[in-house]
Specification:
0% helix, single chain, four-stranded antiparallel β-sheet, mainly beta
Length: 111
């Protein structure tokens, strides 16, 4: 069974940066679209960014220009570089592949 393990969350001040990583346990990584979602307290989980197997990316409107999704197929890892963080970016961030979710990593942005 595929497992996804996220890391890189933490506490940062507004305007700061974090980079999230998600390692995939199996070699199917290279042929699949990967995505990052987030869920803020009291809100529904929402799509943040997605990257295809060929490297095509798409972003939610409120993170465009601030967040960058990338992947390293050799390392079976997908990244989410988050710059210009805002308090409203505070959420648990989840890695997603097919029907599999990671355990989530908490990002807290203080004002």
């Amino acid at each position: 069974q595929v497992q996804l393990v996220e890391s890189g969350g933490g506490l940062v001040q507004a305007g700061g940066s974090l980079r999230l990583s998600c390692v995939v346990s199996r070699s199917i990584f290279s042929i699949n679209t990967m995505a990052w979602y987030r869920q803020a307290p009291g809100k529904q989980r929402e799509l943040v960014a997605v990257i295809s197997s060929g490297g095509i990316t798409n972003y939610a409107d409120d993170v465009k220009g601030r967040f960058t999704i990338s992947r390293d197929n050799a390392k079976k890892t997908v990244y989410l570089q988050m710059n210009g963080l805002k308090p409203e970016d505070t959420a648990v961030y989840y890695c997603h592949l097919g029907e599999v979710w990671g355990q989530g990593t908490l990002v807290t942005v203080s004002s």
